[in-house]
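Worked example 2:
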Amino acid sequence: MRGDLLLAIDIQPHAEFKPMRFPAILALCLLCTLGYAQETSTPLQPAAQKPPDKSNPQAERERSGSDTLLDLPALPESKVTLIGGTVAKLDPVRDRMALRPFGGGQMEIAFDMRTKIYRDGAVAGMRDLRPGNRVYVDTMLNGDQVFAKTIRIDTRTSTGEARGQVVSYNWNGGILSLKERVSPQPFKLHVTPQTAVTIAHHPASVTDIQPGAIVIISFAPGATGVVEARQIDVLANPGQSFTFVGKITFVDLHANRIAIANQSDKETYDLGLDSLLESRTRGLRQGAQATVQAVFDGKQYQARKIELTSPPTQPK
């Protein structure tokens, strides 16, 4: 009977150790994979960026690329006045330009990077501006300075005025050569029968103009494109006498030179003292009022007689 019992036990199947089938294992793996994917697919939120700190001016300048310490302020809303003339001198270090307006005189005009410059209507720069250029300047008051808001260089038209000394006159061709103080090259103009000439504000003829004469010439393009002289005002012919009344603005007795601000035309004239004795010039002082009789010798005005009308004003 024991043998029958053992035999019965050996031949009964062991259900609790039944191996797991492959589809169940595969399903379990898929569930684990999906769970991990859901866990890792949650996007990471970026850290909130701190807005620019505008309370730090140095950081703000670095971001904007500007520097309030170096950038010039906007120009004030001032009345603009157009002035035409010839550039007499440029000082790029001090940002100054000496302009000789058409009609006489000289004035100093300031400029800087805010000044707009055009050449024949196209945008240009300071390198295009040279002594001798004929320009039209939109000027305005900027503080106590006369400031150039816009400078227009016009080389296409030749209308304007020229001031200088007559070098020569070609009678056959009617060409007058003028040496301007601001230009190394002579300026040539065509004199026509219609050209008006005055000497000391009195009508004259072109034959009265001597080589070396100081003149102001108004000109314009002629019918053939050649620059024609419309009006010639002779300021001084060689040998002509003058009387200057005004304040002495400069004295250099070693060089035998003085300068006087003439009251009648608001011009300043350089006068030589070569023909005067030293005893006649010893009392000359800057700031004194004087009356000077002089003669133009073709090169400069030579003082013949100086009368001091009042001494220099003493500072209080």
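The first strand starts at residue 81 and ends at 91. Residues 241-310 form a domain with the OB fold (Dihydrolipoamide Acetyltransferase, E2P) fold (CATH 2.40.50.320).
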